[in-house]
Amino acid sequence: MPRLDSPLRAALSVLLALPTGCRAGATTTPDRDAERALEIEAADRQARERLTLAETDLAAATATHTRAADDLRAAEQRNSDVAAAATSDNEEVDRYAATIAEAQAAAAACDMLVERLIEVHRYLGGFVGEPRRDAAIAGLERCRKTAVKARKKTHEMAQAERRTEFSDRIEASFDAAYPQLKGRLTASVRGEDLEVSIREFFEWRASESQREVDNWCDTTPDFAEIVLRNAHGTFRCRPKEPPKDGVTWLLRVDGLADPWVPVAPGARATPQLHAAPPPPVDPAELERLRLHAAGTQQGVEAASAALAHAQEGVEAVADRSKHLEFAVEGQQNVEAARAARTAPYFLAGGLVATLGALTCVFVGLAYTSRAEGIRDGKITFDTDAERDRELKHARNLGLATYLIGVPIAAVGLTLSLMAGNRYSAASRVTLAPGGLLLRF
Q1: Which structural domain range is residue 248 located in?
Q2: How many structural domains are present in the chain?
Q3: pTM confidence score
Q4: b/e burial code for range 416-429 (CB count within 10 A of at least 16 → b)
């Protein structure tokens, strides 16, 4: 919102510049408008002070609400953390104890499923050493030996299935690439080897045939050797690692390849109940914090409403200032119109007075010239008495004419100046941002 100082000062300047006095038909008076301008300026100052105070109150209310909301969130988070910590600790301790009990029960008969045995060992093996955990893992060593055989057989069966799938995939890929030769490539699994033969196929040269076989070996680790036979000869390749190494690696991933005794320590600390966490926030205190936060929120809303009301007050004062500016401008236009309407009369009076003054000057010059002619003898008389009388008469009339012409000339000049001022009043006197603007 713009400040009202400049428009008000401009209004005051115009009011002081306008002619004073009461005239019929004038909508406002300069004195009254100047008084109103001062009142509006004071009202604007007070409204802005109230606006500043409302902004300060809103900032303080917002800060208070923020602190109250933070306190409430901290209390609620504390209660949530206490409950979560207690639940987490209890669950981990219970799981650890249950897993040890399960391992101890399965150690005698080794009737635990292989997958579950691997999970139990992997879970307990992740913790640091302690008597109960070490004894449970050591008791499962006999079960591990039995599980190795079963797990190895499982991996070997899966490996055999992958070999069959791979051979079928080679045949399907060839048939898709060469549909006119569909069925000429046959891939047969012979134990750990794969034998591929292509009848009456000449498109793969020797180098291309060897490159194709090498690509197969790079794709799968499940064969000991892959052999391709076609019209260009026999081509072989061996994967970098034999199939048995792949099975051993899978057993090591399962944790069954190496003995479990001696028992190796893990990195995780043994689950146990931690020291009692800080007590949760009392429900009554939590309710008090909630009520306090709600109250501070209401304070923020009230301060926001007060700020909006103060802003409306500033805008109302600005509207009053605009109305006063319009009134002053109207008064200025009225005065300018009146000056323009009366200017011709002043101008006519000034011209008449000026002509009268010039007439007096010419007459005075005539009498002065006659007096000089009589004095110099250019004009003669019959007697000296008559000459002296005419000389005195000419001098007196010349001086009287000059004395009459001077005030008439002053009146004419004054009226002319007044006419000129009235003609230029409308264009010379305007409102400017800093006050009254005079154009010369």
Answers
A1: 141-254
A2: 1
A3: 0.40
A4: bebbeebbbbeeeb
